[in-house]
Amino acid sequence: MLGSTFPPFPDDVRTHPLLIIDYELIKAGDVEEVNRLWEAATTIGFWYLKNHGADQEVSDMFDMGAEAMALPLEERLKFEQGDTGQSFGYKKVGANAIDATGTLDAVQFLNVSKDDALAYPQVVHRTYPSTVNARMKNTIAPFIRKGLEVTCVVFNIFNDRLGLPKGTLERLGDVEEHSCSETRSIHSLPTERAIIGAHTDSGSLTFLYNRLGGLQVLPPGHNEWSYIRPIPGHAICNIGDALSLFSGGILQSNIHRVVPPPGAQAEYERWSLAFFTRPGNSKVLRALVESSHIIAEAVKRQPDRNFETGSTAVEWFARRIQNHRINNRTGPETWAANRGTEHTPTVV
Question: What burial class does residue 292 get, using C-beta atoms within 10 Å of its C-beta: 0-12 exposed, 13-18 middle, 19+ buried?
């Protein structure tokens, strides 16, 4: 439906290599593969994931997103996420700022809550377009369950490496507690301007499925952006602010952005799909120093960094969403108020 034949990603642009992690191997406890995952998570915080077993779920989700975006704009706007800090629902092109000057974004997306999908037809947070409801049980919920399964495996690995009591990270993301975890179907038309501004992700883990290029990272210590090359059948995974804070900065929540695809790919509509896992709404974002001497030592080595946010997961996320919205903008201070754990907060 969306097609899978695109011009190849060009070889004449700057790219940053990522480790390719085999999900089946880390699930089986392969020591070498687990070590490679830990290396990726503690250096750049990004990696490719192969053999994740979600190819059909991903394909169905791309179809769901296209069906929703094909609805008349008037219909989509009935489910707009609004300006109060809620992320679930539809976001039109130009609703968010992407920098301190108030430049508008160039992307539309539809976010579906993990809680709404798993409880359907019960409404937990909000309602969604008819095309989304038709796909809730057979497309969206299976995709979310697969994402939660992978998250659990990764959490258990990180939990052990951080010296935390068994099940600590899993409990912080307890699927039974309401959270801001969500799927996102993302669409942008060919454009010459930035699509999504420089940011870190708010939650624990992100799983991204790209069919075209455009994702860029600014690795720690670098001063130039590099593309991440999309690889068919591979998810691009990254650490978010919550895990970085819980771990005392051992796990890296790295800054990234989305720009138009490079080369001949720039002429095509860009579709992508993400699943964001976030802690339970009541969980406070702070370093788990009382639970792990490894984390406590890491915090001591970074005396200039604040690991006591005083924010719950839902408060942290709502602040960031609310201050991205152009209708809430009062000036550069609004942009500053949406920042997360970016290691270079002035980067544009």
Answer: buried
Are 325 and 96 in contact by the 8 Å Cβ rule? The answer is yes
- Domain with 276 in it: 20-337
Q: Do the Cβ atoms of 164 and 291 come closer than 8 Å?
A: yes
pLDDT mean values, one per 10 residues, the chain (348 residues)? 75 96 98 98 98 97 98 98 97 96 97 98 98 98 98 98 98 95 97 92 96 94 94 97 98 96 95 98 97 98 94 97 97 94 59
CATH number, domain with residue 187: 2.60.120.330
What is the rounded CA–CA span in Å between residue 48 and residue 37? 10
Judge whether 54 lies within some domain.
yes
Number of domains composing the chain: 1
Does 14 fall in a domain?
no
Dist CA 189 CA 330 (whole Å):
28
In a domain, 8, yes or no: no
